[in-house]
Amino acid sequence: MQKYLNMYELYLKNERKSSANTIQSYKGDISQFIEYLETIGVTDITSVTQANIEAYISHLRSIQRSNSTITRNIASLKSFFKYFTSINVIETNPALTLERVAVEKKLPQVLTSKEVELLLDQPKCVDLKGYRDKAMLELLYATGIRVSELIDLNMRDVNLELGFIKCSSGMKERVVPIYKMAVKSLSDYMETARPLMCPDANQKALFVNFSGQRLTRQGFWKIIKQYAKQIGIENKVTPHTLRHSFAVHLIENGADLHSIKEMLGHSDISSTQVYAQITKNKLTEVYQKFHPRA
């Protein structure tokens, strides 16, 4: 079964051009499914039945996996078997009729403008780390890019003179403007701190650690949690908090959804509309609280 997992990984990478995070997620789901098949004596992809898959989904429920995790596993299995059906490794897709579990979507948590100001003010430009961290946080809030896109940025993706960055997600590429304060923070980091952190002229990464290597997602996660803890909002901060806050604050100040959709890199407007719902909910709360007859 391992060879099929390897084939599928190459398909995701070379044909679907999936992101590293997507590949890791799908691969992890399928690896666990293969381990389950081995426990019930199924060792070849052509022997997998619909009943095997349904039993696996029941197994996930029995070990109290969340609906969102089960839904993701179903999506992974449907993609996996669809691929091997398309290249005629198997005749009938055993995952074809699987139905996704209904998942209650939670609205993303956002920070207030004041909380964002406090968070962005935490890194102090008194050492190399301060310059770098200030530039990263300012850039995230200025552009709303994903954390994965932030750490994937290269030096050539930044145009300080015109005030924009270019970022990629899979096969998609977009240009996002950045405000003057973020331009200054980036300029200070690129001119003052980065040359000392990374003397290697061949290193393309924009944000690096103290070994001169590209900063990792886990590394950034520790950084933002550290600053959130300093101002008492650690539980409100996730890797995407500034992205969500960016979108909601733009809507609150009159930006249209289609422009925000382009800046966020959403493929469907429905993904952007969730931020309008957050704004609507906040307005309703204010109305109910302050209108004298509410």
What would your notes on this structure say?
The chain is mainly α. The chain folds into two domains: 2-86, DNA polymerase, domain 1; 113-288, hpI Integrase, Chain A (Orthogonal Bundle). Helix content is 58%, strand content 5%. It is built from twelve helices and three strands, in the order H-H-H-H-H-H-H-E-E-E-H-H-H-H-H. A three-stranded antiparallel β-sheet has the order 1-2-3. It is globular. The chain starts with a helix and ends with a helix. The model has no long low-confidence stretch (mean pLDDT 90).
- Supply the CATH superfamily name of the largest domain: Intergrase catalytic core
The CATH class label of the largest domain is: Mainly Alpha
**What order do the strands of the largest sheet run in, or round the barrel if closed?**
1-2-3
Radius of gyration: 23 Å
How much of the sequence is in beta strands? under 5%
Tally of alpha and pi helices: 12
| Number of spatially distinct domains | 2
Overall helicity: 55-70%
> What is the average per-residue confidence, as pLDDT, rounded to a whole number?
90
Query: How many strands, which pairing sense, and closed or not: the largest β-sheet?
Result: 3 strands, antiparallel
Order of helices and strands: HHHHHHHEEEHHHHH
Shape from CA axes? globular
Overall strand count: 3
Second CATH tier, the architecture of the largest domain = Orthogonal Bundle
Structural class: mainly alpha
**CATH topology category name of the largest domain:** hpI Integrase, Chain A
Low-confidence stretches: none
Report how far apart the termini are. 62 Å
